[in-house]
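Quick start: read one record
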Amino acid sequence: LEGIDYARRSENLEEMLELWVVLGRAYMDGQKWDDAEFAFKRALSIKGAKGHKYIIAYACAGRLYTILKRWDSAIFHLQKALSIAEKHNYIELLVRSLQYLGDYYKEKNELDSALLYYQRLLVIAKKYNLKKQEYITLFRLADCWLGKDEEKFQMAIMEMFKVQKSIASEGDMKILT
Protein backbone atom coordinates (compact mmCIF):
# COMPACT_ATOMS: atom_id res chain seq x y z
CA LEU A 1 0.00 0.00 0.00
CA GLU A 2 3.03 2.23 0.35
CA GLY A 3 3.38 2.34 -3.44
CA ILE A 4 -0.24 3.42 -3.84
CA ASP A 5 0.28 6.17 -1.29
CA TYR A 6 3.42 7.34 -3.11
CA ALA A 7 1.61 7.33 -6.48
CA ARG A 8 -1.26 9.31 -4.94
CA ARG A 9 1.10 11.92 -3.46
CA SER A 10 2.98 12.26 -6.75
CA GLU A 11 -0.37 12.49 -8.55
CA ASN A 12 0.65 9.76 -10.98
CA LEU A 13 -2.84 8.57 -11.85
CA GLU A 14 -1.76 5.79 -14.21
CA GLU A 15 0.57 4.26 -11.62
CA MET A 16 -2.04 4.54 -8.91
CA LEU A 17 -4.65 2.85 -11.11
CA GLU A 18 -2.24 0.07 -12.09
CA LEU A 19 -1.20 -0.53 -8.48
CA TRP A 20 -4.84 -0.90 -7.37
CA VAL A 21 -5.37 -3.39 -10.18
CA VAL A 22 -2.28 -5.39 -9.19
CA LEU A 23 -3.51 -5.41 -5.60
CA GLY A 24 -6.98 -6.54 -6.72
CA ARG A 25 -5.50 -9.36 -8.79
CA ALA A 26 -3.36 -10.45 -5.82
CA TYR A 27 -6.48 -10.53 -3.66
CA MET A 28 -8.23 -12.59 -6.33
CA ASP A 29 -5.35 -15.05 -6.35
CA GLY A 30 -5.83 -15.40 -2.60
CA GLN A 31 -9.60 -15.66 -3.02
CA LYS A 32 -10.12 -12.53 -0.93
CA TRP A 33 -13.11 -11.47 -2.98
CA ASP A 34 -14.24 -8.46 -0.92
CA ASP A 35 -10.73 -7.02 -0.87
CA ALA A 36 -10.38 -7.60 -4.61
CA GLU A 37 -13.66 -5.84 -5.28
CA PHE A 38 -12.60 -2.90 -3.12
CA ALA A 39 -9.29 -2.61 -5.01
CA PHE A 40 -10.96 -2.69 -8.43
CA LYS A 41 -13.54 -0.13 -7.34
CA ARG A 42 -10.73 2.13 -6.15
CA ALA A 43 -8.91 1.71 -9.45
CA LEU A 44 -12.03 2.57 -11.42
CA SER A 45 -12.78 5.57 -9.21
CA ILE A 46 -9.56 7.27 -10.31
CA LYS A 47 -10.46 9.96 -12.81
CA GLY A 48 -8.12 11.46 -15.37
CA ALA A 49 -5.93 8.49 -16.25
CA LYS A 50 -5.52 7.50 -19.89
CA GLY A 51 -8.51 5.55 -21.23
CA HIS A 52 -6.68 2.34 -22.01
CA LYS A 53 -5.43 2.09 -18.43
CA TYR A 54 -8.98 1.33 -17.32
CA ILE A 55 -9.33 -1.72 -19.59
CA ILE A 56 -7.53 -4.11 -17.25
CA ALA A 57 -9.42 -2.78 -14.23
CA TYR A 58 -12.77 -3.29 -15.95
CA ALA A 59 -11.75 -6.71 -17.29
CA CYS A 60 -10.48 -7.93 -13.92
CA ALA A 61 -13.55 -6.60 -12.11
CA GLY A 62 -15.71 -8.39 -14.69
CA ARG A 63 -13.77 -11.58 -14.15
CA LEU A 64 -14.21 -11.23 -10.38
CA TYR A 65 -17.96 -10.70 -10.73
CA THR A 66 -18.14 -13.72 -13.06
CA ILE A 67 -16.46 -15.87 -10.41
CA LEU A 68 -18.92 -14.51 -7.84
CA LYS A 69 -21.81 -15.09 -10.27
CA ARG A 70 -22.85 -11.46 -10.01
CA TRP A 71 -23.91 -11.52 -13.64
CA ASP A 72 -25.15 -7.95 -14.14
CA SER A 73 -21.98 -6.43 -12.70
CA ALA A 74 -19.84 -8.92 -14.61
CA ILE A 75 -21.31 -8.18 -18.03
CA PHE A 76 -21.27 -4.42 -17.43
CA HIS A 77 -17.55 -4.41 -16.59
CA LEU A 78 -16.59 -6.88 -19.31
CA GLN A 79 -18.44 -4.99 -22.03
CA LYS A 80 -16.89 -1.73 -20.83
CA ALA A 81 -13.42 -3.31 -21.03
CA LEU A 82 -14.13 -4.56 -24.55
CA SER A 83 -15.47 -1.19 -25.66
CA ILE A 84 -12.36 0.68 -24.47
CA ALA A 85 -10.03 -1.97 -25.91
CA GLU A 86 -11.72 -1.69 -29.31
CA LYS A 87 -11.69 2.11 -29.18
CA HIS A 88 -7.96 2.24 -28.48
CA ASN A 89 -7.12 -0.86 -30.57
CA TYR A 90 -5.02 -2.45 -27.83
CA ILE A 91 -4.70 -6.00 -29.08
CA GLU A 92 -3.41 -7.58 -25.87
CA LEU A 93 -6.25 -6.05 -23.88
CA LEU A 94 -8.79 -6.79 -26.60
CA VAL A 95 -7.71 -10.43 -26.39
CA ARG A 96 -8.14 -10.48 -22.62
CA SER A 97 -11.56 -8.81 -22.83
CA LEU A 98 -12.81 -11.27 -25.45
CA GLN A 99 -11.53 -14.23 -23.45
CA TYR A 100 -13.19 -13.04 -20.26
CA LEU A 101 -16.47 -12.40 -22.12
CA GLY A 102 -16.36 -15.90 -23.57
CA ASP A 103 -15.64 -17.27 -20.10
CA TYR A 104 -18.56 -15.27 -18.69
CA TYR A 105 -21.02 -16.81 -21.14
CA LYS A 106 -19.48 -20.26 -20.74
CA GLU A 107 -19.87 -20.01 -16.97
CA LYS A 108 -23.54 -19.14 -17.50
CA ASN A 109 -23.81 -22.16 -19.84
CA GLU A 110 -24.75 -19.85 -22.73
CA LEU A 111 -22.45 -21.71 -25.09
CA ASP A 112 -23.62 -20.09 -28.34
CA SER A 113 -22.68 -16.66 -26.96
CA ALA A 114 -19.40 -17.99 -25.56
CA LEU A 115 -18.55 -19.47 -28.95
CA LEU A 116 -19.04 -16.08 -30.65
CA TYR A 117 -16.45 -14.43 -28.40
CA TYR A 118 -14.02 -17.35 -28.58
CA GLN A 119 -14.29 -17.50 -32.38
CA ARG A 120 -13.63 -13.78 -32.65
CA LEU A 121 -10.68 -14.21 -30.29
CA LEU A 122 -9.32 -17.06 -32.39
CA VAL A 123 -9.33 -14.87 -35.52
CA ILE A 124 -7.35 -12.18 -33.68
CA ALA A 125 -4.91 -14.71 -32.19
CA LYS A 126 -4.21 -16.11 -35.66
CA LYS A 127 -3.95 -12.67 -37.26
CA TYR A 128 -1.32 -11.52 -34.74
CA ASN A 129 0.41 -14.91 -34.46
CA LEU A 130 -0.40 -15.26 -30.76
CA LYS A 131 0.22 -19.00 -30.65
CA LYS A 132 -0.29 -19.52 -26.93
CA GLN A 133 -3.53 -17.56 -27.00
CA GLU A 134 -4.60 -19.51 -30.07
CA TYR A 135 -4.00 -22.77 -28.19
CA ILE A 136 -5.90 -21.59 -25.11
CA THR A 137 -8.80 -20.37 -27.26
CA LEU A 138 -8.97 -23.63 -29.20
CA PHE A 139 -9.15 -25.46 -25.88
CA ARG A 140 -12.07 -23.27 -24.80
CA LEU A 141 -13.78 -23.78 -28.16
CA ALA A 142 -13.33 -27.55 -27.92
CA ASP A 143 -14.80 -27.49 -24.43
CA CYS A 144 -17.88 -25.61 -25.71
CA TRP A 145 -18.31 -28.00 -28.65
CA LEU A 146 -17.87 -31.13 -26.52
CA GLY A 147 -21.19 -32.94 -26.66
CA LYS A 148 -22.63 -30.24 -28.91
CA ASP A 149 -20.89 -30.71 -32.26
CA GLU A 150 -18.51 -33.66 -32.55
CA GLU A 151 -17.04 -32.54 -35.89
CA LYS A 152 -16.14 -29.06 -34.62
CA PHE A 153 -14.85 -30.56 -31.39
CA GLN A 154 -12.49 -32.85 -33.36
CA MET A 155 -11.39 -29.94 -35.59
CA ALA A 156 -10.52 -27.84 -32.53
CA ILE A 157 -8.53 -30.72 -31.02
CA MET A 158 -6.65 -31.20 -34.28
CA GLU A 159 -5.91 -27.47 -34.50
CA MET A 160 -4.70 -27.52 -30.89
CA PHE A 161 -2.28 -30.29 -31.79
CA LYS A 162 -0.96 -28.29 -34.76
CA VAL A 163 -0.51 -25.16 -32.67
CA GLN A 164 1.19 -27.11 -29.90
CA LYS A 165 3.53 -28.66 -32.44
CA SER A 166 4.29 -25.22 -33.88
CA ILE A 167 5.05 -23.82 -30.43
CA ALA A 168 7.26 -26.79 -29.61
CA SER A 169 9.20 -26.36 -32.85
CA GLU A 170 9.91 -22.77 -31.81
CA GLY A 171 11.51 -24.14 -28.66
CA ASP A 172 8.83 -22.98 -26.23
CA MET A 173 7.24 -26.03 -24.65
CA LYS A 174 5.25 -24.00 -22.13
CA ILE A 175 1.72 -23.70 -23.51
CA LEU A 176 -0.31 -22.33 -20.63
CA THR A 177 1.16 -19.25 -18.97
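The first helix runs from residue 2 to 9.
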